[in-house]
Design brief:
Elements (H helix, E strand, L loop, with lengths): L5 E3 L9 E7 L1 H9 L4 E8 L8 H9 L2 E5 L2 E16 L17 H5 L26 E4 L6 H27 L4 E4 L3 E5 L3 H13 L10 E3 L3 H9 L13 E4 L1
Parallel strand pairs: 3-7, 7-9
Antiparallel strand pairs: 1-6, 2-5, 3-5, 3-8, 4-5, 8-10
Helix pairs in contact: 4-5
Pfam families: CxxCxxCC
Protein name: Fe-S oxidoreductase
InterPro entries: Puta_zinc/iron-chelating_dom
């Protein structure tokens, strides 16, 4: 029988706090901005054709997304608000400790567990050094062992679903309406911190559903571009200035 037991003992190396974007809930984004830190916005689009043989993956992603119009097509877009830690997290101290440990985001509390229920936790896929997997508490067997950790994972998933409409509405308010195609690339926006904070305040005062109109998709893979054009998807063919197009 395969042994699925995973142990983990953080050694405080801080590698998970560097060179990445840290996904945030909408509430966590408010707190992040209030601390004076930068937030990136990642936009990914998809439709049923993205997972022709994996309906569960489509269903999971659709719960986190908003259906929008792109050209003559209906597609779904996921917006991820993420703390900018591309150099390192601003909350990481010189001593390697988290400066907001008691208020750290859910994704940090959950790490190294996966939030996507369809992704298996594989130590080899993580940036942590090998020794952290040799001892420590059991995280996972055939399920998450720690009930507190299991609750945090579910809260994170629920926030993804609950925040979906608001995040797309914020993107539209700030003119961020070009997404990359999921699995092909990422469209990464680095909005002005003050403008994003103001947009959130306006939304909080008068929440409005996103219009879902005039969305475009950026693709630089000819075969994929042709397929999306045939499906009626509007492609962004302008030089990218408002966002970073990061191929995968």
């Amino acid at each position: 029988m395969e042994n699925n037991t995973v142990r983990f003992a953080c050694n405080g190396c801080g590698i998970c706090c560097k060179g990445r974007l840290i996904p945030l809930t909408l509430d966590e984004t408010r707190q992040w901005l209030q601390r004076g830190h930068e937030v990136a916005v990642v936009l990914e689009a998809f439709d049923e054709s993205s997972w022709p043989s994996e309906p569960r993956q489509f269903a999971h992603s659709a719960q986190r997304a908003v259906e929008v119009t792109s050209g003559d097509a209906r597609i779904r877009v996921v917006a991820v608000l993420a703390g900018n830690a591309l150099t390192q997290c601003r909350n990481l101290g010189d001593d390697g400790r988290c400066g907001i440990y008691e208020e750290r985001p859910l994704v940090c509390r959950i790490y190294p567990m996966e939030i996507n229920p369809l992704i298996t936790l594989r130590p080899a896929d993580k940036v942590c050094p090998p020794e952290v997997w040799e001892t420590g508490e059991v995280l996972f067997t055939d399920r998450v062992v720690d009930p507190i950790l299991a609750d945090q994972i579910e809260r994170s998933r629920q926030a993804d679903r609950d925040d979906a409409q608001a995040k797309i509405a914020l993107c539209e308010a700030l003119g961020m309406n070009v997404a990359a195609w999921k699995g092909n690339a990422l469209a990464v926006y680095l909005p002005d911190r003050a403008q994003l904070a103001e947009a959130i305040v306006r939304y909080d005062r008068a929440p409005e559903a996103p219009t879902g109109l005039d969305w475009k998709v950026r693709v630089e893979t000819p075969a994929l571009a042709q397929r999306l054009l045939q499906a009626g998807v509007a492609l962004d063919d302008q030089r990218s200035t408002g966002y970073i197009f990061q191929g995968l």
